Amino acid sequence: MHRFVIDGGTPLESEITISGAKNAVLPIFAATLLADGPCLISNVPELRDVTTMLKVLEKLGCRWEQEGPGTIRIDPRDVRCYDAPYDLVKTMRASFIVLGPLLTKYGSARVSMPGGCAIGVRQVDLHLKGLAVMGARIETDEGYVKATCSRLRGAEVYLDFPSVGATENIMLAATLAEGITIIKNAALEPEIADLATFLNAMGAKITGAGGSVIEITGVTSLLGANHRVIPDRIETGTYAVAAAITRGQLLLKDAPVSMIESVIAKLQESGVEVAPRDTGLLVKGPAQIRPVDLTTQPHPGFPTDLQAPFMAYLTLAAGSSTISERIFENRFLHVAELRRMGADARVQSTSGTVIHGVDHLSGAQVMAGDLRGGASLVLAALAARGRSEVSRVYHIDRGYVRMEEKLGRVGARIRREDDRAPETRPGQP
Ligand code: EPZ
User: I want to staple 334 with a disulfide (CB 3.0 to 4.6 A). Which of 50, 115, 181, 373 is the partner?
Assistant: First the structure.
């Protein structure tokens, strides 16, 4: 396992290029299962979660190869297995997204229930309800979902909550169903629209993706297609906070500016200067951070995935802020670790934290407990006085491409070490 060793206090300057979106490429990889030929996916980020999804596809019988930097060719023509095992799904719940494609293409699927994770129970009831309405016979047994159908039939599916994963699983299943499926109260996240763009390139008939009503007219087969993955809005927001918390200035190249309007608004409310540029987004940290109140919501509201990174930033505000987490039930694991660095953040309930700004944070040994919480600790360490060590960096590697390299190139004093190396004390080289 690895840790990051970070000496804080350096304003970040220059530019960072944003990678392809983790939460777009994972469902797009699952969608390749629907094709009758190979697909070429580009702008694929080098992430642990991408590697895990490729292992799942391999287990099912897909063949894949790297065709160039960030370009993966996936050939699903030898798929013979419809079983996504627990040992893979437990490491990445997004693997559950193969259920819809396997079921609608082969009439059968056995996928491990994803189980919970650090940030919450992560149910899949909305996925299953939608597929059942479309005619799937579903049973859960020994921690697995077993689903069969002759051919799914189009239906009207109303989602009790605009779940990203449920919207994606049902949309994928509907592409080869008999008739028209209408998903109401669908998730609006941009990754849904990107998935629909890829599916339509394969010959699917989807309209309305990105809106709350999506209509899918089933077809009998889908072809292989090529697709370039959209940039990662969460990585963008994370590095915008990095510029803000270090009082630096970064140009975020390829930043999907239109996808993070709620984040830009909150940054500006706190005093950050944000200016769209031809090649991306220019972010300049404030001399003084103004406190703000933040509530996470489904898109286009403030994204839950940036709650932890933004909290690190607000620990240094000139005043008190509040954060309300409305999407997941346990997404404050980072608070205790930030307090080890001197933050005055207090969890009031499973959905609310108050942050009283302090004059400075101090370097400390902290531990990442989940992907975005880990990113939060790195951001805090970049601004802290002295040395920090962030352990269990494998959480961070799930969703950020070589974070230490991207930050190191813009002035951060950060290095990756093997966890087994002797611990360095603050002030030591
Ligand atoms: C996706 O997760 C993202 N992951 C998450 O990003 C993101 O936080 C989340 O959407 C919200 O934007 C991927 O796209 C791979 P949901 P997903 O279904 O699909 C409840 C990251 O850090 N729910 O919208 O799992 C669920 O328990 C990750 O990159 C049900 O109750 O999100 C949660 O509380 C973390 N029943 C809420 O809805 C269901 O059937 C949001 O879940 C499905 C979900």
Answer: 373
